[in-house]
Amino acid sequence: MKPLIIGIAGGTGSGKTTLTNSLLEKFDGQVGVIYHDNYYKRNDHLTYEQRCLLNYDAPEAFDNDLLVTHLKALIEGQTIETPVYDFADHNRSDETLIVEPQPIIILEGILIFAEPEIRDLCDIKLFVDTDADVRILRRLRRDVIERGRTIESVEAQYLTTVKPMHELHVEPSKRHVDMIIPEGVNVVALDMLFHRITGQIGTQANQS
Fold first, then answer.
1. 187 conformational bin, left if phi > 0, alpha if psi -120 to 50, beta if neither
2. What are phi and psi of 125, to 5 degrees?
3. Burial, 146: exposed, middle or buried (Cβ in 10 Å; 0-12, 13-18, 19+)?
4. Residues whose CB falls within 8 Å of the CB of residue 206, separated by 6 or more in sequence, listed in order
5. How confident is the model at residue 207 (pLDDT cuts 50, 70, 90)?
6. Model's pTM, two decimal places?
7. CB 3.0–4.6 Å: which of 20, 61, 126, 128 could bond 14 by disulfide?
8. Measured distance CA(108)–CA(22) in Å, rounded
9. Which of 3, 4, 14 is nearest to 127 (CA)?
10. What confidence tens digit (pLDDT) does each residue in 122-149 have?
């Protein structure tokens, strides 16, 4: 059976991972997850200081060719090894994550719908729409506590790349989606989404 590919996009700190976790809980044992962040390009040739200055919010920061290859492999029923990105080091690590074929594959990332080839592989396209003030506060807390960044570095990155790239690439990608989900976990939107996913899984199972 061909897996149902669900793309989840939205600005930084919008609640994409919260939505992903809700789907993991609802469809326990039927979901594999790919995080677009893990497909940042390797930059071993640069120093740490140079890597800190890169624009990580532009489409060209990602190895999208590898991601497309991996998505197509999962669609064909093959197991993949996704790269793992080290946010503290601003570079891809030597680790990998095994993702096995599942009835549902979730692809999560801010820029997945800005890339036509990735977008076209998604059966359901979701955008988590959250107020910018809420998003920056969540990002600040996450990057300082979980990723070891300084408040000054988070502020500088937000103003120089995150905010302008959001306006240039992320926000316009909303026009390609099937459903906009306000504020991460919205009960009504979730019920509609769960119903649609259940229906499509059943349809694809009957066709296989």
1. alpha
2. -115, 120
3. exposed
4. none
5. low
6. 0.88
7. 128
8. 13
9. 14
10. 999 999 998 888 888 888 888 888 888 8
State how beta strands 91-99 and 4-10 pair: unpaired
Output the 3-class SS for the chain: CCCEEEEEEECCCCCHHHHHHHHHHHCCCCEEEEEHHHHECCCCCCCHHHHHCCCCCCHHHECHHHHHHHHHHHHCCCCEEEEEEECCCCEEEEEEEEECCCCEEEEECCCHHHCHHHHCCCCEEEEEECCHHHHHHHHHHHHHHCCCCCHHHHHHHHHHHHHHHHHHHHHHHHHHCCEEEECCCCHHHHHHHHHHHHHHHHHHHHHC
Length, in residues, of the chain: 208
Q: Is the dihedral of CA 153, 157, 158, 159 positive or negative?
A: positive
Residues 6+ apart with CB under 8 A from 123: 4, 5, 6, 200
Note whether 115 and 41 are within 8 A (CB). Answer: no
